[in-house]
């Protein structure tokens, strides 16, 4: 890390992104958080303590927004060394039933948005810098009812490797692929009876991960000077097991409540 280095965390207003911002700030980086939820991003900035930290609005599904965001944040003094891409959404529905608009929205945020972040970060980042994306266990492990998310994250893992080839040796490009972590993104599913217990039954280490554990992996990849094109599994061994049938749990929950599935 150089003096006056800064890191950009896109999607840093909550969950893994917020933990990553705190971890990077704790290791001496100035941090710029980009997020659609600017008030929440500023609340995280207030937690980071001393340093030249800032928050800016950005919507990763809007190319002009991403371009403007990086044009703006890279005018700040210092050396832009790290970009972390965290945004993610999901949609649950069988292939025969999921509206194409929901499928496209997930791909827009999780894959096309990641492409835009990588593209514009790479145009501005300093030589020797690192770009790290948040992929998922679902990049390698299929899940019933999660076609959009699985497809987008599988695409992101391959995008990471293509970008690593194209940007080497100037920039390193890697990803972390977490399994079950308690975040705002997973809170809805984990609130359904039976979902979390089935997840944990299929985690050899017997527990979910934490946002801070994922952030530590991001920090490692940010600093690992001889690692590029890596998609780092971080799931307590869940990739060796079976993915839970979340869709079935939602269906049973809807039957009990009398709501449509």
Automatic annotation (TrEMBL):
<protein>
    <submittedName>
        <fullName>Short-chain dehydrogenase</fullName>
    </submittedName>
</protein>
<feature type="domain" description="Ketoreductase">
    <location>
        <begin position="5"/>
        <end position="183"/>
    </location>
</feature>
<dbReference type="InterPro" id="IPR057326">
    <property type="entry name" value="KR_dom"/>
</dbReference>
<dbReference type="GO" id="GO:0016491">
    <property type="term" value="F:oxidoreductase activity"/>
</dbReference>
<dbReference type="Pfam" id="PF13561">
    <property type="entry name" value="adh_short_C2"/>
</dbReference>
<dbReference type="InterPro" id="IPR036291">
    <property type="entry name" value="NAD(P)-bd_dom_sf"/>
</dbReference>
<comment type="similarity">
    <text>Belongs to the short-chain dehydrogenases/reductases (SDR) family.</text>
</comment>
<dbReference type="InterPro" id="IPR020904">
    <property type="entry name" value="Sc_DH/Rdtase_CS"/>
</dbReference>
<keyword id="KW-0560">Oxidoreductase</keyword>
<dbReference type="InterPro" id="IPR002347">
    <property type="entry name" value="SDR_fam"/>
</dbReference>
């Amino acid at each position: 890390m150089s003096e006056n280095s800064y890191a950009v965390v896109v999607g840093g207003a909550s969950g893994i992104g917020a933990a990553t911002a705190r971890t990077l700030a704790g290791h001496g980086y100035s941090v710029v958080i980009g997020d659609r939820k600017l008030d929440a991003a500023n609340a995280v900035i207030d937690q980071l303590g001393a340093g030249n930290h800032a928050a800016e609005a950005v919507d990763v599904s809007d190319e002009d927004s991403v371009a403007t965001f990086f044009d703006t944040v890279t005018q700040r003094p210092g050396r832009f060394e790290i970009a972390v891409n965290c945004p993610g959404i999901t949609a649950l529905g069988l292939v025969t039933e999921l509206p194409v608009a929901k499928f496209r929205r997930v791909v827009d945020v999780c894959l096309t948005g990641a492409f835009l972040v990588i593209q514009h970060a790479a145009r501005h980042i300093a030589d020797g810098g690192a770009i790290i994306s948040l992929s998922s266990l679902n990049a390698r492990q299929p899940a019933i009812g999660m076609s959009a998310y699985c497809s987008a994250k599988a695409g992101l893992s391959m995008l990471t490797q293509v970008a690593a080839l194209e940007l080497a040796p100037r920039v390193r490009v890697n990803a972390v692929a977490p399994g079950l972590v308690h975040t705002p993104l997973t809170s809805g599913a984990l609130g359904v009876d039976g979902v979390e217990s089935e997840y944990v039954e299929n985690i050899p280490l017997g527990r979910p991960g934490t946002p801070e554990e994922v952030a530590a992996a991001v920090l490692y990849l940010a600093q690992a000077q001889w690692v590029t094109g890596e998609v780092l599994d971080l799931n307590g061994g869940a990739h060796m097991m079976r993915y839970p049938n979340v869709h079935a749990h939602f269906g049973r929950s809807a039957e009990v409540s009398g709501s449509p599935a």
